[in-house]
Amino acid sequence: MMPTSDYDPACLPDLLPLYYRRLFPFSQYYRWLSYGGVSKNYFQNREFSFTLKDDIYVRYQSFTTQNELEKEMQKMVPYKIDIGAVYSHRPSQHNAVKSGTFQALEKELVFDIDMTDYDDVRRCCSAADICSKCWTLMTIAIRILDRALREDFGFHHLLWVYSGRRGVHCWVCDDAARKLSVAARSAVAEYLSLIKGGEETVRKVVLSDPIHPFINHSLSVVERYFCQYAIVEQDILGSKESVDKVLALLPEDILSFPVVLSQYHIKKGGQYFDKEIMLQYCYPRLDVNVSKGVNHLLKSPFSIHPKTGRISVPIDLKELNTFDPFEVPTISLICEELERPRADEAEDDDVKDKENEQEAGERHYKRTSLAKYVKVFDRFLEAMARSRKGEMLQKSDLQKDF
Amino acid sequence: MQFPGRRKKLIGSSQNDLYDHCLQFYGQPPLENISLTEFETFAVERLKLLKTVENLGVSCVKNSEQYTKKLDAEISKFFFNKEDGISEYEKRRKDHISHFILRLAYCQTEDLRRWFIQQEMDLFRYRFNDLHSKHKTDFLHKNNLKYETVSAEEKKSLQDKLIASSYGLSGTKVEEHDVYKVPFQDALDLVRTRKVYLLAGNAYIPHHEIVTIVLNDFRTRLSKALAMTARSLPAVQSDERLQPLLSHLSHAYVGQDYSIQKNIGKISLEQIDALSGKSFPLCMRHLHKALRENHHLRHGGRMQYGLFLKGIGLSLEQALQFWRSEFVKGKVDADKFDKAYAYSVRHMFGKEGKRTDYTPYSCMKVILSNPPSQGDYHGCPFRHSDPELLKQKLQNYKVSPSGTNQILELVKGMHYQLACQKYFELTHNVEDAGFSLNHPNQYFTESQKLLSGGRDIKKEVDMSQRSQENPASVTRPSQANSKQAHEEMGDLDSFFQDE
């Protein structure tokens, strides 16, 4: 396990400038948000919002080039960075635009899964706390949503990001996703929602015949993890209180269930209560409002979480089962690693890096624990580039361009 | 010199380009010149068709055999032309032009627009469902709706999943009927409620649901178009040739709603009891009796009856007096009445709140909205009463057993308005009511006319002579069938006579 430097929020003013000068992967970031330069001014019309020192919040930040983005971020040293929509005009000039014509046009389809929304079914932690026992919920959420977004909705380019404290975000970056209307986004989010009801509702999942294939797929994911998660880790049968909570989800006449075999039960849906319980404990809780709005601002990948110091890093789905949020590097760690080279780096690399240090600032992250996460991001960008190339070939074939 | 035969062919090919399908979304307005006569004919006939669609929608179950048969007949009539062999082109042209003319008449107010859209949608739904599956797909493609049908192999491989996702699908249905593949963005209502199977970004929609998607599209387009039409209307209305016709067309629908109070004050409160037995339709007679017996009516009843009374000519002062005198006999003291109920009576007359002058409920509204529950007396007795109770009530009101049976038969067939008409005929001792009932106030007016004798008896004689040559045939679609279109056209004005 990597030695983690203790993170102290008071150090942020010193660490952040270093982070933005030497570690933030600007080149990949710019590459991402330009989307191959297919749409003119796509990057220039993108809104960013910054939270500065002392909680000063500024919206409608926009930049014309990667260089400008770097310079501004190094100058303003934001504590938090959010990404918004691509607008009809440069956000930084929105006041100069005729009223009514400044509009949000496109944005990635996003999802925000927050552990606090599971408090009614978590025993180990509550509120902003997380631990390895409840992190499984995130794993389940990612598997369910990733499958659905790819297989049901046909999306290909999904970026899953650790939020830095208690949840994960999903950025669906396909062309089609970015062009979705508000109604479409909300329809997708509702399709993916199974947990209905707040404080007042005891039974939050109700299944009826026939069961939609989407629910069946989701159930098989939940079933894979349920025993280990709920019975062992969460120990839902371990205390009277939590047993009572489970029992509250069962139909009242459960005791007579084996005796009364009539249609009565089937009509009541009584036969699905086991599935309903598993779903209620494990199925992802989505905030539809986050996904609905085209102009909604969401925390940027590679931004820092001021309370934990952790970097919002992309998650490699191939290694999902071993992902540990407590192993995600903090800003203090990687700043420290900058100063001293990593023990496992080959000498050759060291020399090469020292030579190139002058050259490209972005290489510096390679000396730190951030490197592997940037690689995940690189692979994601590569896949999108290949896809774009494929599309252009198709188009030119159709047009018979040579 | 061109021979007629050859000339027809030439026209035919360009005609085919213009109307390449028997159905259309009415996206492009017609560009040709037409005669004023044709303008009027087309408009009136389509309006008749739409009124039939409306009435059938209330009195029959949609897509039932009866509905289909009657609507089919009406549509054939619409497309019928006195010359032999009306060409497909001419049919489509009439469809096209008549729709656009009616847009002019029905774009002006929210109510008119809503009515027009509803009937056009119902008509479209019927005609679309009637198409052969190949023509359905044709239509979709021609209108840039990228909906492909799923191959038989794919259907088979996805069969279980399809059945598990879509309402009303069974194995045989999947085999026999088409399933359409539609980008999920075009099926949001089904996606949102998870009532459809999704795969790779496509929604797999069974044929009985594709029409819903198409209809949504139709409604959106028509709604936008009507809003735009409304904006260019002033220019159209300034044309003196068109203005009277257009206002007649829309008035033909609006004029019936009894919103304009005639004969205010001609009825005195003392007459109401007698009138309720003689000239009130059953629903209002029922409400009046309940009010007299219980000295109270709940909100639904107060609205339905109160507005009806307004429609027959009660003034606001009379209405207040009427309701207060009744409620005070019950549990409500005068003070409470003035505080609570008086407000709502004044509201009905448009003297409170947003000052909308509420219109008396039509039969359709009474039948279709706000069904009564325990303790309510509103609604339509033919629709909402238990047949046994209805039978008893009719017997109490001295309706003959054979008459009662006729009424109950009509009720069983869900012809509630016809049943009420029969009630009219039996209580007024006439063979034929002479009108097509669709409003309680209409019932009252017709009854009063009949009972006051004179001109109206003559009208009855006229009725029996000219088969269905009903002067107000456009405003009130007649019950029986065969009409010769050209006969009606003879006297256009008579079409728009108010009662």
Automatic annotation (TrEMBL), chain A:
The keyword Metal-binding applies. GO terms for cellular component: alpha DNA polymerase:primase complex. Its cofactor is Mg(2+); Mn(2+). GO terms for biological process: DNA replication initiation; DNA replication, synthesis of primer. Residues 342-364 are annotated as: Disordered. Transmembrane segments: none annotated. Its EC number is 2.7.7.-. InterPro entries: DNA_primase_S, DNA_primase_ssu_euk/arc. Residues 351-363 have a biased composition (Basic and acidic residues). Pfam families: DNA_primase_S (PF01896). Keywords: DNA replication, DNA-directed RNA polymerase, Metal-binding, Nucleotidyltransferase, Primosome, Transcription, Transferase, Zinc. The keyword Nucleotidyltransferase applies. GO terms for molecular function: DNA-directed RNA polymerase activity; metal ion binding. It catalyses: ssDNA + n NTP = ssDNA/pppN(pN)n-1 hybrid + (n-1) diphosphate. Belongs to the eukaryotic-type primase small subunit family. PANTHER family: DNA PRIMASE SMALL SUBUNIT. This is DNA primase. The lineage of its organism: Eukaryota, Metazoa, Chordata, Craniata, Vertebrata.
Automatic annotation (TrEMBL), chain B:
It comes from Cyprinus carpio carpio. The keyword Transmembrane does not apply. Keywords: 4Fe-4S, DNA replication, DNA-binding, Iron, Iron-sulfur, Metal-binding, Primosome. Residues 464-483 have a biased composition (Polar residues). Gene3D superfamilies: 1.20.930.80. The lineage of its organism: Eukaryota, Metazoa, Chordata, Craniata, Vertebrata. Binds 1 [4Fe-4S] cluster. Belongs to the eukaryotic-type primase large subunit family. This is DNA primase large subunit. Its cofactor is [4Fe-4S] cluster. GO terms for biological process: DNA replication initiation; DNA replication, synthesis of primer. It comes from the Eukaryota. GO terms for cellular component: alpha DNA polymerase:primase complex. GO terms for molecular function: 4 iron, 4 sulfur cluster binding; DNA binding; metal ion binding. [4Fe-4S] cluster binds at residues 283, 363, 380, 420. The keyword Iron-sulfur applies.
